[in-house]
Write a structure and sequence with these properties.
Layout: E1 2-6, E2 11-17, H1 20-35, E3 43-49, E4 52-58, H2 73-84, H3 101-108, H4 113-128, E5 138-140, E6 149-151, E7 157-159, E8 166-168, H5 170-177, H6 184-197, H7 204-228, H8 235-255
Antiparallel strand pairs: 1-2, 2-4, 3-4, 5-8, 6-7
Helix pairs in contact: 2-5, 2-6, 3-4, 3-7, 4-8, 5-7, 6-7, 7-8
Length: 257
């Protein structure tokens, strides 16, 4: 539950905290990130009512312009700073990205059966190269898609959605952040910007590969969520993915082999 209210001087968001991981963010991690210099919506109040928590936070009317959706350097640096941060407390109900063979099978149901054999072969190959992405313990936002960022009057970035905070590989967050331009050129640019801030001990090319693998996972994860609850996703979007994904995957498969 989220409500927007307008006062004489500003607009505010009142939101019910549903998940323990988001509650952890506001109670603990929020203050660590602001201390690192990252901009977040100002937290005005965190209130407990029985077993429920409510937060009152700052509202930003200006969303991330589309021209900054393709590996914006400041956005990538922001996420790299998030991943560099360490905490001493375990995140309750944390998001752990996973990719299983069962998830691949569910995703295949969204495509014409004539594509299944080739898609499965390519997806299985990429999955086998991606195991390390799902055994990583970096703290990730979990859903830093372009529509979950805002900018202030100084054009500074604010990441306002933290309801999927958890543990995973940095490539997961980067892949989600560039979901409108998932190709080698964009992944190389993102990898370069990222490693300038957070050295993962791998080359730009290797991290670019990891980002492309994570982009593939993102499609599988999205299609599994769609199959779980078909009412929340426009059919036009699913039709678009069904038409475009096989060709895109073929390109990514060739890039990674």
């Amino acid at each position: 539950q989220t409500f927007k209210i307008n006062t004489n001087s500003k607009s505010l968001i009142i939101k019910k905290i549903i998940k323990n991981n988001e509650l952890f963010f506001y109670q603990t991690y929020y203050h660590q990130l602001t201390a690192k210099g990252l901009l977040l919506p100002q937290l005005y109040y965190l209130h407990q009512e029985g077993h429920n928590f409510w937060a009152i936070i700052e509202y930003f009317p200006f969303k991330l312009p589309e021209e900054r959706w393709e590996a914006d350097q400041k956005l990538i640096s922001y996420l790299a700073t998030v991943h560099k941060n360490e905490i001493n407390h375990k995140i309750e109900n944390a998001f752990y990205p996973q990719w299983t063979n069962q998830m691949t099978q569910v995703a295949l149901e969204c495509f014409d059966p004539t594509f299944h054999e080739n898609l499965k072969h390519q997806l299985d190959s990429i999955l086998n190269k991606s195991k390390h992405l799902f055994n990583s313990k970096y703290i990730i936002n979990g859903n830093p898609g372009p529509k979950h960022w805002a900018i202030n009057e100084k054009q500074e970035l604010i990441l306002f959605n933290w309801n999927a905070i958890g543990y995973g590989h940095p490539a997961i967050d980067i892949a989600i952040s560039i979901c409108s331009s998932e190709n080698r050129k964009t992944s190389m640019k993102a990898a370069k910007y990222y490693l300038e801030v957070n050295d993962l001990g791998i080359s730009i090319e290797e991290f670019s590969d990891d980002i492309l693998k994570a982009c593939t996972w993102n499609y599988i994860y999205f299609l599994n969520n769609y199959m779980d609850n078909k009412t929340t996703t426009p059919e036009k979007l699913i039709d678009h993915i069904s038409e475009q994904f096989p060709q895109w995957l073929n390109t990514i498969y060739e890039e990674l082999n």
